[in-house]
Structures are given as structure tokens and as C-alpha cells.
Design a protein that fits this description.
Layout: E1 2-8, H1 29-45, E2 49-53, E3 69-71, E4 76-78, H2 88-100, E5 104-106, E6 118-121, E7 124-129, H3 135-145, E8 151-156, H4 163-166, E9 167-169, E10 174-177, E11 191-194, E12 206-208, E13 211-215, H5 219-227, E14 231-235, H6 238-242, E15 252-256
Parallel strand pairs: 1-2, 4-5, 7-8, 10-11, 13-14
Antiparallel strand pairs: 1-15, 3-4, 6-7, 9-10, 12-13
The structure holds citrulline (CIR).
Citrulline binds next to loops.
Length: about 260
Amino acid sequence: MSLHALCRAVSPAIADCELSFIGREAIDAALAQAQHLDYISALIGLGVSVTELPAEPDLPDSVFVEDTVLLFDELAVLTRPGAESRRAEVDAIAPAVQAVRKPVERISAPGTIDGGDVLRIGRRVFVGLSQRSNQVAIDQLAAILKPYDYTVTAVPMQDCLHLKSAVTALSDETVLINPDWVDAAFFSEYRQIRVAEHEPDAANVVRIGSAILMPSAFPKTQALIETAGYSVTAVDVSELQKAEGAVTCCSVLFTGE
Ligand code: CIR
């Protein structure tokens, strides 16, 4: 089994992206595209086989593929994103998903869920109750996953876009967390590393085996992760951060041949 990723090239319309918790700043689409290529190179350097889907000129946020599909070893679940402007991204990615995983399930109205709210650690699936993801979708997901022996837990959160803005896993035993945005008690069974002071956005990292991929914008949190024994690859994703994205959102990771 090896690790694969679906990614999608940056839309030339990325400047028209959705924004919820940050103000709009000018985004250099060409620089965003270059940074996205660096991100893909970093994934490849960490041993991931990347399939890069073409840019979608009419879908500004479509680089953030994580929000459109949940890929488990046993099945895929197409989401129904909370932002209406992002719903067409799901049909756009569906053929690529069907090519790599079966069965493919789907969240339906009035459920809404963004993949950025879904944190899987082993057989535990934590889902943020956010501006984008609601209890209806969480109940649908729990029913879809029940036969596969996953436990789904809804997690209240505040002041950030997605659950994975506030917490991600460094390993099956350890989480990286900003406790101002999510109640750390929900993750009491894990060892917890807190983001460094003045780096509230630093909790969003990608775990690839025992390596960690994270934005270069958070050197103090990077040092904490390295001190804990992880090998860290840092990438500059400043233009994608202006679109309220970071590193998990730019790929959907899955196991395959
Ligand atoms: C949005 O607001 O939907 C996009 N501008 C950013 C989505 C980032 N997604 C993620 O972190 N999973």
C-alpha cells in the first residue's frame, strides 16, 4: 500500500474565493500557482503519488479539494460544502474519486459538511460543528460509517473556519491544537502539543507517515513539532493563506496500490 493524493491546480479566479474569518487582501494568482506547485513537489518528495486535476476557471476555491470528499480506506464520501458557491466542486471531482475508491457515498441536503471539518485519527472521526458543517450531515456521516466501525464525534468550535484550522493529528497518539478555537477536552485521550503563542493558525498540518508538512509561516510551532521528534517540511503558502486555506485543504490523501 502506498500513499496517493488528489490535488487540483489553482483557479485563475482564486481572488474571488470565499472568506469567513479573515479580511480580503489582493491575491497574486500566479504566485499562488507557483506555491501550489511547490506544495505538490513537497508531497512528492515525501513519497506521495500525486494526481493533479486541471484548474477550474469558474470555481475560485476549487484548489481546496479537501472540502469536497472524504476518502477512507474502505469508501469515499462526497460532501455537500457549506458554501453554496463551492457545491459544483463536488461534481467536478466525483469522476476522479470514483476512479480510485468504491463505494462512493454522498452527503445530501439539508446536510452540509466541508472536508476541512473532518479529522480522522485511527477509527475515530471528529467533525467540527462549524459555519460550514451541520449536525444533519454529521448524523448522515455517522450512519454511512457505522458498518465500517468508525466512531463519529461532533465537536463544537469557534472563531475559525474548520475543525482542522484548530486541531490536526501529528500521529495516532498526538494532536497539534489551538485550544482557543476548540475545547481540548474533546481530545483528552491524545497527547497534546499546543500551537506557539502568536501563531494561532499553526495547527493545520499534513501528516505523511511520520513526517509533517506545514506552512513556513509558523517557525515557533515548527520548532515545537521538531523538538517532539518529527521531521518537518515547511512550504510557503502565503497566497493560499490569503484565501483562508493552508496545507491540509490542498490535497485529499488516500492509500492505494
Ligand atoms: C473557503 O472559504 O471555503 C475557502 N476560501 C478556503 C477553504 C479552505 N479549506 C480548508 O482549509 N479545508
